[in-house]
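Batch queue: ligand-bound targets. Current item pairs a single chain with pyridoxal-5'-phosphate. No template structures supplied; prediction is de novo from sequence plus SMILES. Inputs echoed for audit trail.
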Amino acid sequence: MNDPQQHRTIDDVCSQPAVQEAKSLGLASPIYPSSVYHCSTTDEADALLAGTLAGYISGREGHPNASALARRCADLHGCDEAQVCGSGMAAIALALLAEVSAGDHVVISDQLYGRTTQLVSLQLARLGVTSTAVDATDPTAVAAALRENTRVVLVETISNPLLRVVDVRSLAELAHARGAVLVVDNTLACPAVCRPADFGADIVVESLTKLVNGHSDVLLGVVCTNTESPAGCQRWSRIKSLAAIWGFTASPFECWLAHRGSSTLALRADRSCDNAGTVARWLDARRTDSASGISEVIYPGLATHADHAVAQAQFTRHAGYLVTFTLSGGRASVDRFIAAGSGIPFCPSFGDLTTTLSHPESTSHRGYSPAEREALGIAPGMIRLSVGIESPDTIVARLAEALAAAR
Ligand SMILES: *Cc1c(COP(=O)(O)O)cnc(C)c1O
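Prediction returned. Tokens below.
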């Protein structure tokens, strides 16, 4: 009854922060869900908002969990700075908005992620930015598409689902010679497979939603860049301010989850990429047997891959965790493969712990006409695997079971 707590008002009680001050530091990092921070003086507020003082004032401008994740992403790419965004698409939009204005022109790969193609060909077009789509694995085609007003060349390190690999260094040289910047979406590679900034990319964007977070429970993206040149400093300052102005900010909890997820990136990437190599070789060995029902196997680590040499020159020892193959029985075979329920879920994304599959015709490429898909080389029987970290024997056994059902 003498407890002084009893005499505190509701306001007293509810205005107490949950944790005053940690008595000892926990090994795990805290989550800072705060959307706003204390300012000690008016000058401090001024300096924080001007960006001349490091610190936080509004969660939209930045918060500790975004900073920690951004630092990690920049370090993974060997870049000076990184801006975390609420999704991979937000990161791509931010990178483009930081570089182009009405009247400018963008050269894009003709195999970009579908939403990215729409972002450039529909949304940027609406804002007065024109674009040309070319085969980005052909530097001559990219050179021919560059114009006086080209500001950006936008490509993906590895394309989906054909897993074509671009020569980042050649594209960077071409872009720079014409005063344009090279933006590389490295999502399908991830920094464990390729670091495009090492080969001259000016901006590296990634959807952290995929392998970097790795647990299919977060949507986030990142924009990485360098600040060693005056142009790089200006670019970074545009990226930072545009992220706050357009509201591309990521939430503290998601940043915290992705920071935790990415702690095991090296282990997961090693295992997934090694497994992908095993799966690709296993499938490829069966391709020549017509009874297997496999007509094509695509993996940049296979010597038969169109861009094998580029991949070898530019990738770490890994060739990625995605493997594409085609069932000669077409879509009906794919449905039987899926219905076999062999423990390879049909989830049209990638980068999870578990091996998953996608069917490009009915998901990522359903917006294309059958003729367009055929021209791209996307057959009705094509399956794109995202190989996970299970034991290789388990994955191969599940594949064998599903393939038997598909025949
Ligand atoms: C998934 C993906 C994106 C979009 O990322 P979100 O985080 O889902 O917005 C962009 N580019 C590529 C290559 C992707 O695979």
